[in-house]
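In response to reviewer comment 3 from the previous cycle, which asked for concrete evidence that the modeling workflow produces usable outputs, we include below a single protein chain processed end to end. The sequence was submitted unchanged, and the resulting structure tokens are shown without manual editing.
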Amino acid sequence: MKNFKETLYDAVCQEFRIDKMYFESKTEHQHLMIFHNAQLGRVMTLDGVVQTTEADEFIYHEMMAHVPIFAHGNAKKVLIIGGGDGGMLREVLRHDGIEVTQVEIDQAVIDMSVQYLPKHSQGAYDDPRANIVIADGIDFVRNSDEKFDVIISDSTDPIGPGEVLFTEDFYGLAKTRLNEGGVIATQNGVPFFQQDELINTYQRMGKHFSDTTFYGASIPTYYGGIMTFAWGTDNTALRNTPLATLQARFEKAGFKTRYYNPAIHQAAFALPQYLINALNGN
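The workflow returned the following structure tokens.
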């Protein structure tokens, strides 16, 4: 059987057995593959890098969606940049009273995900609260006059179309799209192997937000230890929301999760010492 060998790093890699190929095509923007793996279920890759798998996507999507939304406590409008597989849209829409704008650069990713990764979106693209915009994320935040309570940048790694979403320009423009007290959370890679990416984000985002930090989750598909999510806000109280408050908000929301809970939410902001040292320049 054919194997897929990930190309994210030069010196180390992981391989996935391709038990069945569902789709492979060079889209307008990137090389997209969706295949089945006996251990992980359906797997989507873009430009040689694994993006998501059916088996563990819930960890990534729950943590990236629910941490900023429950911390905020009163989010009404959420902007998702990227996230064409639909998992992020699914999780955000589990919150009642929220309207979502999702900006995805590649319509083909949405179309192929709906067809071949239906468990990710679970019908979220048919929800009337979802406004789907096919555009470059940085162009949207530059040209839009809408304001949001939470922005989630569910991007690829900082290569190809996703590179611009890790720039100081993007963070500054995103801030202009946030309501007062709003928060942005962004995908920030596996820092054991991508420490420079973490430091760059910390420096670039930190120029625009008074509280810039990271929180993490261990996601088996993303090789190398914890995956981090960058966090930016001018409301310094948000990441210190009391556990009892988070618990009350979670219970009021009334939905079940498979990874996220209020205790995990709080603990996720505790970073290993090697990352603290790196952020402090040590």
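The chain has a mean pLDDT of 93. We consider this sufficient to address the reviewer's concern, and the full set will be provided in the supplementary archive.
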